Structures are given as structure tokens and as C-alpha cells.
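Batch manifest, entry 17 of 40.
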Amino acid sequence: MNFHTEELLEQYKENLPIYRELLKVLKKKLEQFVKDFGVLVNSVEGRVKTLDSLTKKLELKGEKYQSIYDVTDIVGARVVTFYADEVDKFAAKIEQSFDVDWENTVDKRKIYNVDQFGYMSLHYVCTMPKEIYYDEKFPQLNEIKIEIQIRSVLQHTWASIEHDTGYKSDVEIPKEYFRALNRLASLLELADESFCEIRNSLEDYRRRVRQVVSNGKLDEVELNGDSYKAYIENDGFMILNRRIATINNMEIQEVNLDEYLKVFKAFMFKTLKDLDDFVKDYSDLAYEFSIRQFDGKDIDIISTAAGPLALCVVYMISKDMGESVVKRFLDTIYGMRKSNENLAKRLTNIGRSMGLDKKDSK
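Output type: C-alpha cells
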């Protein structure tokens, strides 16, 4: 180790508390950007380069650095997105927020020709401007260069594989391994593009479903997770819930109704029209059922499940499905618990008191 390298390492040791403080600030800023971004990311990671790692770097090319401040990756962070197109969207936020050193910034996704091998990520070198953070105790925080990597999950997977195999594209390796790695990189890149296309197609489908539901063309929509969610968002059960709430002037608390979709599918409902017809046909009986369930009781809050539950119970009793089926229904929506047996008995008795087991309500 030469004298210059030793001098740089001493500078590193003196600055170590500042590097750690900078990393803490950087991660916090990136996590806030992710929150503002409004999209889930896989991870936000960060690190301060270790003494051992920096020593190896300087021993190889320490002569290119006049001072420790010329080393651009001592403090580094990485944002891993789920989709490849989100890399560029998040990159725009970095460019808007940080002072980018364009000379040292590299988009490694674009460094290869079409016939070359590689699958990399976007690396920014920048400094933190005072406009987004300044601490008079640590003025150096705005001077030290930081590296921010942005990559998709699959780009991150490739980088990990590349690191694990020790492969570098500028090193000669046997052709059979080169071919295998090339195929793998191509598959990952294709998968990245395909995931983006599928996500975009699903988003378009969901927009179309919401539009069709809002237009009332329910017979055109298959009953599935997306259409069911759109039905709920379009107040599919709320007319009945508001009516039930008037029994004791009760408040309505929103809860998740996802488990009811399994029940409606078990009822053999195929389209949203099947579900909507069911709601309309059984709403009066569900309301009467709820009167018997809640009237005179000291209950001032019901959930948005009150309507669907009443609808399902009156439907099952009227179809002569019996107490055991009501119990299985409760196991589906509440999970297996001991109280379901007694609740099934009570709900079934309410339905029978209405004479629902004597006739088909339709």
C-alpha cells in the first residue's frame, strides 16, 4: 500500500461519522420519494463502503483520486422497483431532487450494443442540495458525492447472479457458459417487458370494468375479483346497508368484503348481473331479517358486511340449505372459530322464524 492510498484511507476514517449520517439522511429522503411516488417498490437499501472494500478499490485505482471526496460511491443507496418502466419514473424524481454529476452518472442499461451481453441498472452520482436537506453541524453532507442505483427486481436478480458467478462481460469465458448466461439475461429482460405489458393490460381491463359497472351493463361483466371490487366501489351493497342502519340509527363501519366473493361463486353466480339480481331480489327479506337481528339490541355500529351477511343467510335458508351450510358460510367469511356454530344456529333460527325454510323466496 502506497503513501497516497494510506492518506485517502485516513481521510475516510475521519469522515466515517459524516458518511453514516449522510446515509441515514439519504435513505430517509428516498423512502419519502417512494411514498410520494405512490407506487410500491421492492426495497430501499443503503450502505457505507467498508474499510476493506475501499482499500481494495484504492489499491487498484487509487491514483485517479486526489482526495477522498473524489471517490463517488462511498455512500450508496439502491431503489429496487417491481417493474422496469418504474425505473425511469423514479429516475426523473432523482434528477429533479438531487444535483446530478452527469459526467460520472452511467445508465448501464444502455452501454451494450444489440449483439452484446449484459443486463444492468441505472447508476446516478450526485450530491444532496441544501434545498432538500441542510444541517449546519454537518455542512459536508452537501459536498460528499453519493451513488444511487435504480433497478427493477429482475435487473437486481441478474446483478446478483452476475456477482455470484464472478462473470464480467469484458472477461473471456468459455462459449458454452457465455451462451447460457446470454440466454438467461435475454429471458430476464423479456420477462421484465412482459410483466410491464401484463400490468398495463390489467390496468386497462380494470378501467373498462369500472366504466361498464358505472354504466349499469352488468350482464357483460364476468364475476371476478376486479369486477366484484368495482361493484362494491359502486355502492352495490350500500343501499341495503344504509337501510339496515336505520333500524337503530346505527353508524356504518367499512370492512373488507373479499371473502364474500367465494360465497357468491359457490352460489354459482357467473356475472355481476347475477350478483346484482340476487341483491335486488333478496334485499327486502334481508332487511326484515336484520330487523329481527338488531331491533331492540344495544348496537350502535354495524359493518358494511351486515347487508351481504343477511342476504346470504336468507338465501341459504330459503333454498333449504340448513344450519350446517350456514355454519360453513361463517367459516368461510370469519375463519374457523368455535363461536360460528352458535352464531349459525341463531341466524338460522331467525330465518326460520320468518318462514324462509317453508318456501323459496323467489
